[in-house]
Amino acid sequence: MSEQQPPDEPAPPSRPKAQKQKPGLVLINTGDGKGKTTAALGTAIRHAGYGRKVLIIQFIKGTWHYGELESLARIPEITLVRAGAGFYKILDDKFPEEVHRQAAAEGLALARSSVASGEYSLVVLDEIIYAIDEKLLSLEQVLELLTQRRPEVSVILTGRHAPQALIDQADTVTEMKEIKHPFRDGILALKGIDY
Length: 195
Ligand code: ATP
Ligand code: MG
Description:
Blueprint: E1 26-30, H1 36-48, E2 54-59, H2 67-72, E3 78-83, H3 97-117, E4 122-126, H4 128-133, H5 139-147, E5 154-158, H6 164-169, E6 172-175
Parallel strand pairs: 1-5, 1-6, 2-3, 2-4, 4-5
The structure holds adenosine-5'-triphosphate and magnesium ion.
């Protein structure tokens, strides 16, 4: 099947006309507003629509249930691996720090081998930035992982507080900005919307 490009759209004013194409990109979804993970999942679905393989590694929240676990399981191109022992230091955290650290290290090792192998053309590292923030992984380890990336593999990293050194290595960086969130009014997370 030949792939059709979308029709040329007029370039927005003051932006240079795009002329080059990279085979793969590094994207970061950061910021304090909602939408970092769900935007990454949306891109995974878009990617799989072309028959391309996607690996999603979920750091930190490995024992929690999310609706996407069920729906992604129905998409054969997408593999989801949970590299976490549940939310770190929150609510039901019943694991010692070492267990979280080990889970993060295993996730990192898998991420490293998958960006280098090219088996998947999109690798989503969900909440990996949170893992850096919580010092379960070091910034250097994540930067080193990006140096292992084959150019044709795209990588999406999500989590609040993306460090500048990581932003410097990315092609696309989006900050989700909270304008409103019902959590502020004491409204609990809603099934199917928040998890
Ligand atoms: P989502 O998974 O909905 O795309 P996210 O990845 O941007 O959210 P995280 O920081 O990973 O956000 O937090 C995950 C959970 O926290 C989700 O249930 C989300 O709805 C909720 N959340 C996100 N932003 C906020 C916020 N500003 N205040 C309170 N809860 C939030
Ligand atoms: Mg998230």
